[in-house]
Amino acid sequence: MQLNHFFTKNPRVAVAFSGGVDSSYLLYAAKTAGCNIRAYFIKSQFQPRLELDDAIRVAGRLGIALTVDALNALDDPDVANNPPDRCYHCKTIILCRLRELARTDGFEILCDGTNADDDESDRPGMRALREQGVISPLRDCGLTKAEIRRLSKEAGLFTHDKPSYACLATRIPYGTRITVRMLERIERSEEALFNMGFSDYRVRLVPPDGAKIQLPDNQLETAAAMRSEILSALRPGFKTVVLDLIPR
Q1: Which of 71, 93, 107, 175 has the fewest beta carbons closer than 10 A?
Q2: Which residues contact 200 (CB under 8 A, 6 or more apart)?
Q3: pLDDT at residue 168 above 80?
């Protein structure tokens, strides 16, 4: 199936929007096809402000209505206790909220940006997508991440070269109870790296109070040269800071 055929058959859709490469292209494709579309961004403690800023920017440029709704994911003990299937429980909560918001606005079809490269066996949250009846047009149409990046670049979307992003909870080892303070420290640290010019990074918690920075290979030398600046930015939140010499 071609993506434009999907939107011809489904001219009124709601999109679970993250501001990333895939869901941004999905919005663009729906808009181009003349769909009646609305985007929904759920802002929990797991999404940094930078991601919300990108989502607002994309929706604004495309002229698509965006609903931003706050959610406290840590209210659910199955999320806060951080078991291996945390993502499934978190995604279920988010999708239920999205479904409720979309139906209130008159949208029965809820889509997301899962693509053909996404491995179901490695993504517990995809079980939640199936259970909640969420449609993944990019995946169903066989569009890979590389193809979506190419099409996004042709469309002039600034997200075309945006690194893939995983929520802040993925920085915390399974079994370590997640707290707001942990997430805030990680978010501040990653924002500091962003402001220093780094990209595609992760700051992972090393319990109880350590941080491990992961960067692509071509940024490791720069990070070593900026040791003092990085320590100055991260040490207020962590007692120890290490640089992972195995690149992301």
Answers
A1: 175
A2: 163, 164, 215, 216, 219, 248
A3: yes
